[in-house]
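A brief tutorial aside. Many learners find it easier to grasp structure tokens once they have seen a single protein encoded end to end. The record that follows does exactly this for Shikimate kinase. Read the sequence first, then the structure, and try to relate runs of similar tokens to stretches of the chain.
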Amino acid sequence: MPSKEFETLPNLYLVGPMGAGKTTVGRHLAELLGREFLDSDHEIERKTGATIPWIFEKEGEQGFRDRETAVINELTSRPHLVLATGGGAITQVLNRNYLKQRGIVVYLYTPVEIQLQRTYRDKNRPLLQVENPEQKLRDLLAVRDPLYREVAHHIIETNQGAARDLAQRILNLITSKN
């Protein structure tokens, strides 16, 4: 049940690269708002009964992106939600439209060095299973950063403060402008 104080706020959507802390910050933000928290990647896995690496392997990246768009369309149609999206969700025009038009989008900007620290041992990230993960993160950010900025209503840097502090900063930012 959403907090009465925040029930008129639109849905909140967190975008950003792998390792930005979207899921962790999103959980704290949902708690502060008294809202449901969902992660689009977790929802894809729940609905398909398969892991994201398995989907990538069997269906390719486009097969995964098609599933992701269907899930984002469904989730952004629900009320009183905080949603963390996958790092590449913004590569699809439909996803950017759903997010921007159906809620407040916050881009969690994270430098590559911090992304690398946070994702270094994570085998559940198919795009990082390459010889040079740092270069892959740099290449992804070069392509995706303009898209994150295009869709975002607000940009928060994640290299300053703990996840709970970032959630509070986001809440202060969105409530001061509404």
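Self-check: The chain has a mean pLDDT of 91. If you spotted this yourself, you are ready for the next section.
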